[in-house]
Amino acid sequence: MGLLKSIFTWWDGAGVSTNLFTRRKGNRMGSDALGNIYYQGGTDVHGNPRRWVIYSGSNDASRVPPEWHGWLHGTLADTPDKALPPARAWQGAPQANLTGTREAYRPAGALEAGGKRAAATGDYEAWSPN
Q1: Quick check: pTM over 0.85?
Q2: Residues paired with residue 37 on neighbouring β-strands, in sequence order
Q3: What's the number of CA atoms in the CB half-sphere (13 Å) around residue 101?
Q4: Which residue from 59, 53, 60, 55 is spatially nearest to 98, judged by alpha carbons?
Q5: Dihedral through CA 115, CA 116, CA 121, CA 123, nearest 10?
Q6: Which sign does the torsion angle of CA 49, 63, 35, 85 carry?
Q7: Residues with Cβ < 8 Å from 74, sequence gap 6 or more?
Protein backbone atom coordinates (compact mmCIF):
# COMPACT_ATOMS: atom_id res chain seq x y z
CA MET A 1 0.00 0.00 0.00
CA GLY A 2 2.97 2.35 0.49
CA LEU A 3 3.69 2.77 -3.23
CA LEU A 4 0.04 3.26 -4.16
CA LYS A 5 -0.39 5.75 -1.34
CA SER A 6 2.61 7.78 -2.48
CA ILE A 7 1.27 7.80 -6.06
CA PHE A 8 -2.24 8.99 -5.23
CA THR A 9 -1.85 11.12 -2.08
CA TRP A 10 0.23 14.25 -2.67
CA TRP A 11 -0.90 15.92 0.58
CA ASP A 12 0.60 13.33 2.95
CA GLY A 13 4.33 13.22 2.34
CA ALA A 14 6.38 13.37 -0.84
CA GLY A 15 5.02 11.90 -4.07
CA VAL A 16 6.80 9.49 -6.38
CA SER A 17 8.27 12.20 -8.64
CA THR A 18 9.59 14.19 -5.66
CA ASN A 19 11.21 11.07 -4.20
CA LEU A 20 12.83 10.21 -7.55
CA PHE A 21 14.10 13.78 -8.02
CA THR A 22 15.44 13.80 -4.47
CA ARG A 23 17.32 10.53 -4.98
CA ARG A 24 18.83 11.71 -8.28
CA LYS A 25 19.68 15.34 -7.56
CA GLY A 26 19.24 16.04 -3.86
CA ASN A 27 21.97 16.52 -1.29
CA ARG A 28 20.71 16.26 2.28
CA MET A 29 21.49 19.53 4.02
CA GLY A 30 19.92 18.95 7.42
CA SER A 31 16.79 18.31 9.43
CA ASP A 32 14.77 20.11 12.09
CA ALA A 33 13.25 19.10 15.43
CA LEU A 34 9.97 18.10 13.75
CA GLY A 35 11.71 15.51 11.55
CA ASN A 36 11.48 17.48 8.29
CA ILE A 37 14.47 16.86 6.00
CA TYR A 38 15.92 19.64 3.81
CA TYR A 39 17.63 19.13 0.45
CA GLN A 40 19.54 21.14 -2.11
CA GLY A 41 20.47 20.20 -5.64
CA GLY A 42 20.83 21.81 -9.04
CA THR A 43 19.91 25.38 -9.90
CA ASP A 44 16.78 27.13 -11.08
CA VAL A 45 16.47 29.24 -14.25
CA HIS A 46 18.00 32.25 -12.46
CA GLY A 47 21.04 30.32 -11.27
CA ASN A 48 19.87 30.09 -7.65
CA PRO A 49 20.23 26.76 -5.85
CA ARG A 50 17.08 24.58 -5.74
CA ARG A 51 16.03 23.88 -2.18
CA TRP A 52 13.13 21.80 -0.90
CA VAL A 53 11.78 20.02 2.14
CA ILE A 54 10.44 16.50 2.63
CA TYR A 55 7.89 16.80 5.44
CA SER A 56 7.61 14.31 8.26
CA GLY A 57 3.85 13.83 8.07
CA SER A 58 1.35 16.03 6.31
CA ASN A 59 2.50 18.73 3.90
CA ASP A 60 1.94 21.87 5.96
CA ALA A 61 4.23 24.83 5.35
CA SER A 62 3.56 26.23 8.82
CA ARG A 63 5.54 23.25 10.17
CA VAL A 64 8.79 24.70 8.77
CA PRO A 65 10.71 26.57 11.52
CA PRO A 66 11.63 30.20 10.73
CA GLU A 67 15.35 29.55 10.34
CA TRP A 68 14.77 26.79 7.77
CA HIS A 69 12.16 28.95 6.02
CA GLY A 70 14.87 31.55 5.53
CA TRP A 71 17.22 28.93 4.10
CA LEU A 72 14.54 27.53 1.74
CA HIS A 73 13.85 30.98 0.31
CA GLY A 74 17.52 31.91 -0.15
CA THR A 75 17.74 34.44 2.67
CA LEU A 76 20.52 32.35 4.25
CA ALA A 77 23.40 31.23 2.05
CA ASP A 78 24.34 28.38 4.39
CA THR A 79 22.28 26.05 6.59
CA PRO A 80 20.84 27.66 9.74
CA ASP A 81 23.15 25.82 12.14
CA LYS A 82 26.15 27.42 10.39
CA ALA A 83 24.68 30.79 9.39
CA LEU A 84 22.74 31.84 12.50
CA PRO A 85 23.87 32.56 16.05
CA PRO A 86 22.60 30.27 18.81
CA ALA A 87 19.04 30.86 20.03
CA ARG A 88 18.55 33.37 22.84
CA ALA A 89 17.13 32.30 26.20
CA TRP A 90 13.96 34.38 25.69
CA GLN A 91 13.14 32.92 22.26
CA GLY A 92 10.29 30.42 22.22
CA ALA A 93 9.98 27.39 20.01
CA PRO A 94 8.04 27.92 16.77
CA GLN A 95 4.47 26.69 16.79
CA ALA A 96 2.46 25.30 13.89
CA ASN A 97 -0.67 27.06 12.67
CA LEU A 98 -3.45 25.97 15.06
CA THR A 99 -6.36 27.45 13.12
CA GLY A 100 -9.13 24.89 12.78
CA THR A 101 -7.94 22.76 15.69
CA ARG A 102 -9.10 22.50 19.30
CA GLU A 103 -5.99 24.45 20.39
CA ALA A 104 -6.86 27.50 18.23
CA TYR A 105 -7.19 30.86 19.97
CA ARG A 106 -10.77 31.64 21.01
CA PRO A 107 -11.33 35.22 22.21
CA ALA A 108 -13.83 36.05 24.92
CA GLY A 109 -17.31 36.03 23.42
CA ALA A 110 -16.57 33.37 20.80
CA LEU A 111 -19.24 30.69 20.60
CA GLU A 112 -16.65 27.96 21.11
CA ALA A 113 -15.46 29.69 24.30
CA GLY A 114 -18.90 29.82 25.90
CA GLY A 115 -20.40 32.77 24.04
CA LYS A 116 -20.36 35.18 27.03
CA ARG A 117 -19.43 38.68 25.93
CA ALA A 118 -18.71 41.61 28.16
CA ALA A 119 -21.71 43.83 28.74
CA ALA A 120 -21.88 46.97 26.59
CA THR A 121 -20.82 50.16 28.29
CA GLY A 122 -23.03 53.26 28.41
CA ASP A 123 -21.67 54.70 25.17
CA TYR A 124 -23.55 52.26 22.89
CA GLU A 125 -26.83 53.24 21.31
CA ALA A 126 -28.71 50.61 19.33
CA TRP A 127 -29.77 51.50 15.80
CA SER A 128 -33.47 51.38 15.04
CA PRO A 129 -35.09 52.16 11.71
CA ASN A 130 -37.58 55.01 11.98
Answers
A1: no
A2: 31, 54
A3: 6
A4: 60
A5: 10
A6: positive
A7: 48, 49, 51
